[in-house]
Structure formats: C-alpha cells, structure tokens
Amino acid sequence: MTTPPLLSVRDLVVEFPTRRGTLRAIDKVSFDIAEGEVLGMVGESGAGKSLIGAAIIGLLEPPGRIAGGEILLRGERIDSLAAEPMRRIRGKRIGMVFQDPLTSLNPLYTVAEQLIETIRTHIDCNDREARERAVALLDRVGIPAAARRINDYPHHFSGGMRQRVVIALALAAEPELVIADEPTTALDVSVQAQIIDVLKEICAERGASVMLITHDMGVIAETADRVAVLYAGRLAEIGPVRDVIQHAEHPYTQGLMGSIPTLTQTSSRLVQIPGSMPRLDAIPQGCAFNPRCPHAMERCRRDRPGLLPRGADREVACWLYEAAEEEVRHG
Amino acid sequence: MADTVLQVAGLTRYFDVSKPWLNRVLEREERQFLTAVDDASFEIERGETFALVGESGSGKSTIAKMIVGLLAPSRGTIAFDGEPMHIQQGAAMRNLRRRFQMIFQDPFASLNPRWRVGEIIAEPIRTFGIASGAEVEREVARLLEVVGLSATDAGKFPHEFSGGQRQRIAIARALSSKPEFIVCDEPTSALDVSVQAQILNLMRDLQDEFGLTYLLISHDLSVVRHMANRIGVLYLGRLVEIADSKRLFTDPQHPYTRMLLDAVPDLALSGRRRTPVTGEIPNPINPPSGCAFHPRCPHVMERCKREIPLSRPTATGTAACHLLEDAPVA
Ligand SMILES: Nc1ncnc2c1ncn2[C@@H]1O[C@H](COP(=O)(O)OP(=O)(O)O)[C@@H](O)[C@H]1O
Ligand SMILES: Nc1ncnc2c1ncn2[C@@H]1O[C@H](COP(=O)(O)OP(=O)(O)O)[C@@H](O)[C@H]1O
Ligand code: SF4
Ligand SMILES: [Mg+2]
Ligand SMILES: [Mg+2]
Hints:
The complex is a heterodimer. Chain A is of the alpha/beta class.
C-alpha cells in the first residue's frame, strides 16, 4: 500500500533570525500521523512543541519561519501554500484547540453565531440545518441545555465549559486533523479529566486524527496512541505510548519518566536529571542532551545522532542504539 | 506524645467582594462576602510534611498567608509551639517570625529583581541578627552551596538564573533566618517536571539535614503523595478530609477525595476503569447549601443539601461527610 499518511512532517526546520545570528528552534523534526491516530507531542517548556503545531497550521509568528523540510497533508505539501488556501485548510481540514479558550472564541459573538458561521462556511447546508448541527455538537461535548446555552456569549461559560465549546468549534467543519496545544493545562484537575475524555471520544467518533501537544506525560498516557518526545527542538524518541512510558529508551526520556512523582511509587527520591534544557543560542554540539546524559560517550559530544529505527514502530535518536544488539546498553 | 508544632483551630477568612458603594446603592445590591476559608482545623507535628491539596480557589494560599502572618484571620486561632500567634508583639513576634518562612510558586515575583542574589539572601540574616560583618558573606556563600548553587552566584541578579535556580535562591533566602517551619505554596507548580524533581529532592534533603517542618501546598496529588506524611484535602474553603498520606490514597473516605484521585491521569497504564468525574467547582460567593460538594457527589442524600457535615474521626484522621455517620462509604 502506498497511501500517504494523513500528516507527514519531514525534516522540519524552524528558525528565528535575530541580530546576533539565526536561532534554530526546530531542527530536522520528522514524524507521521496516521488516519484516526492520536499522536502525543511531549516535552518541557521551550522544547518547541507549540512551534511545530504553529508551523503545521501556517501560523508561525514572524520573524519565525520554516527554513527547511516539508509538511504534507495526505501527500500534498501545505508548508508552501499561499495565505488564502492555507486559511481554508485551517478552517476546514485542520481544527485547533489552544490552552486559552478565548484565543479561539470571539467575545463579541454568541456561541451560536460562531458555530453556525463555521459550519455554513465549510459544509453545504442551510441556516436551520447548521443550527441543528451546532446544537447537537454542543450537546455531544457536554454542554447542558445546549439548545438554550448556544445563544450565550463565551464569557457566560466557565473555563471548562468554554474549552468544550472550543472543541465543538474545532470539530464543526469535520476536520481530518485536530491540533490541540495544551488543551487542559489551564484547567483544574477534575475538569482536565473531563475535557480529555470529551476530546478523545469525539475525535474517535468522527475519525479525526489528533496531535496532542502537552508537557504532561499523564495526559499523553491516557490519550495518545503514539508519543513523540521533544528535547531542545529535536525528537529524542518516538513510539507507541505504552512502550515509551514503560520502557523508555532515550536517556532523556528515561530521566523524564523517573522524575515524575506518581500516586503509587514508594521510593523516597525522584530521578534527577542534572542541569536544564539548553537555550537556543547554546545548544551543545553533537547530541543536544550530552552534557546532562549519564551515558554520554566521545561520539555524543561530536556527532548528532539521527532517529535510529528500533523494531517496527519505534525510533530513538541516541548513539547507544546504533551499535549492534550485543553492545546496546540499557540505562 | 506527639510533638505538635503548629495548631490551627476554627480558622476562617472572609473577603468583602462587594461592588463599590455607589453601584450597590444604584443596583440595590447587598454587600457580598466570600468565605475563602471556613472553619479549618489541623495540627502539624515537628519534622513532618503536612500537605494541603485542593483545586484552585479552594483556599490553600489564604491559609498559608494567615499562618505566616501576611493576612489576618476573620476567626479562629493559630498557635506555634503552644503560643497563640496573634497576641505576640514586638520582640516576641520578631522571634516568632524568624522561626517561620515561606516559599512561593513564582520565585521571580518573590525575589527583588534589582538586588543581587547575595543581598537577597543576606537581608534576613541582618534583620534577625543571625550574623554580622564579614560573617554575613560567609553565611550567604554557605547557604548558596547548601541549595546547590555556587558562592560566586552571590554577585549575580535573579534574571540571570533559570526558574529552578531561582527557586533555589528563594529557598536559600528562606533558610537564612534558620527557621524551623517553612510554608511552601506551590513551590514547583511553575517548573518543568525534571526541574521539579530537583527541587523536591532538595526540599527532602534540607528537611533531613535541618529537621524542618513543612506545610506544603499543592494542587498536584502526585507531588503531595510523594512529599507528605499527612494530607488535608480542601474543597471550597473547607477541609473535607485529613489522613495519613498512604491511607488517603489507598482508602479515601470523602467522595471528593475519591473524585480527585480518579481525575489523576494514570501513568502506570493500569487500564483501571475510572468513575467519570463530573461538574465543576461552584462559585464561592454563593456556595451550595449544606455540604458544598453535594451537587457533584454521586452519593448525595437529602440531608447533604441542608446540613453542613461535621468532621468525624476516621482511621487516621477526619472526614466531613454525612455518609460516614452510619457506615463507611460503599
Ligand atoms: N518569536 C520568537 N523569537 C525567538 N525565539 C522564539 C520565539 N518564539 C518562540 N521562540 C523560542 O522557540 C523555542 C520553542 O518555543 P515553543 O514552541 O513555544 O516551546 P513549547 O511549546 O515546547 O514550550 C523556545 O526556546 C522559545 O524561546
Ligand atoms: N484578596 C482577596 N479578595 C477577594 N477574594 C479573594 C482574595 N484572596 C483570595 N480570594 C478568594 O478566596 C478563595 C480562595 O483563594 P486562594 O486561597 O487563593 O485559593 P487557592 O490558593 O487554593 O487557589 C478564592 O475564591 C479567591 O478568589
Ligand atoms: S546520544 Fe549520547 S548523550 Fe545523547 S542521549 Fe544518547 S548516550 Fe546520551
Ligand atoms: Mg507551548
Ligand atoms: Mg494558591
């Protein structure tokens, strides 16, 4: 079969020209998202998660720009599109959910006006049908008394309810892909769980793929099929969620997993990765993680490891895994 | 005998959230009060970590501020080593203040950006007369090393440090008055997990080394589970449950505690079937009658809507739920 994946990002490079030189914030990142798949993109703040999302939907803020690589939606390049066709893709084929619901909602219009307009722009139907669809969507995302609440303005809803409205809006045009950037980060724990459930269920029902961007490995564990771990603008590791969480291979992922306190653990100390993620103007030569890595070798300080295949569905960017099987060390 | 270091009884704090007088008159509105903390009682033992956990707006920071004296209680008492705090004055108060310190969520906001790190840490040393002259500088250098920074960092400004390093500076400052008790209000909530691990490990080490007692405030149940001996769970300003840390997670008594536990994402991928969490936190200005949790509670009874449940003893603490009166929660 040669059907292209729903989304394919190949060697993506994002740069910021500054007075003191060009900063490379995303450095040759490659991954695919399959039809109906939820891909988690995880990393600490500043790793470049949001920039990847913004690059895909063509909303990088200048002077940030795509300086290399390509982005393909069902095999067609979308990184070089003009503003207008890109805007149509954003409205129709790729839906978006951001951390702050108010970036997606216009405070001056009712929820009905915003949903109906989105539906009518992208789906062939009359006003009454659009309203029916809108009410059904709101009902589906868990807005009580949807037929009445639809006439309210965004500020009439609580934070959690607003994020439900945004999810409805993101799905209104029946997109193929939803990019959700920290959709639950601003919400309380008890509300977070509800929003994650709604997002996951409704996308599954409608066959939409999801790129879920978050710093929270717990959210990824509950939601994603596969996870990509980002460090200093580069992919450290990518693979099925269960494999990566239970058997992390990249030393950074191993450290990250050990540093997360859990409800069941008994150890009195957390795993500590020394130091912190480098700034963009000070990314070390070779493997970006090498100064913090307990396994760093001569080669790690010299050459950058690319993503090396590990079995059928995993890739790891670490020299430890380049050697023959018997030389592979586990951390 | 338990060695109680902090005793909080019936602690209550209202805030006047009325509109300005003219608006009230024109719109014919009553004055409005918000009960941020309602009748909270708990004790903290020397050398332990007591945690308060709750979602935003549950009253955690208000309790912290009352304990360190940044905010006056509307009602209730706080006693440190058996001595009531509010009647302390002058030198006695100053001595008491020295024994207490606080660490906040945002280390940047709590560090004066125009001062060098050395001055930031030296200030309490001078104020409380811990050291003088050249000794101050030596003490600052020692403290910087204790928190994992270097003595030469004293000459730098806060903005030259990362978030995690700034929190280390805040901790060094807090330690400088040689306190016994530190209130930590969401000390790692603004940090990435790998940096959080560094700070939590440091807090543990310091506790062992100096015999510190912590009041740890957090919305993160995993952090609280990792750090605390005992935990109090807050909901809309009320302490709904207090229990030993292990017990709270293996045998939660209050339905809200159960709901919170069910809401934590499962990193262990155990595939456990969670009870779906429902509803959101109501407006604290007009909290629900009776048990404030009743609109979200799967076990709600008639009585819950009318009567505020009293705290009742449980295996290792207390819980305030009408169900506990007759039988344990099914
Ligand atoms: N306009 C900009 N100019 C320079 N650097 C930027 C700009 N926007 C983002 N960056 C940098 O790009 C990196 C990645 O940012 P971002 O994608 O927002 O990270 P994340 O979402 O993972 O927290 C960060 O180091 C950030 O400082
Ligand atoms: N100075 C204040 N004036 C009015 N309301 C306040 C004030 N400080 C806190 N509150 C309210 O008191 C409640 C508890 O707040 P807080 O103690 O900050 O909660 P937490 O730290 O658990 O998030 C909230 O509803 C908050 O809005
Ligand atoms: S490549 Fe080297 S430095 Fe980088 S993670 Fe692997 S072992 Fe560590
Ligand atoms: Mg981001
Ligand atoms: Mg607070």
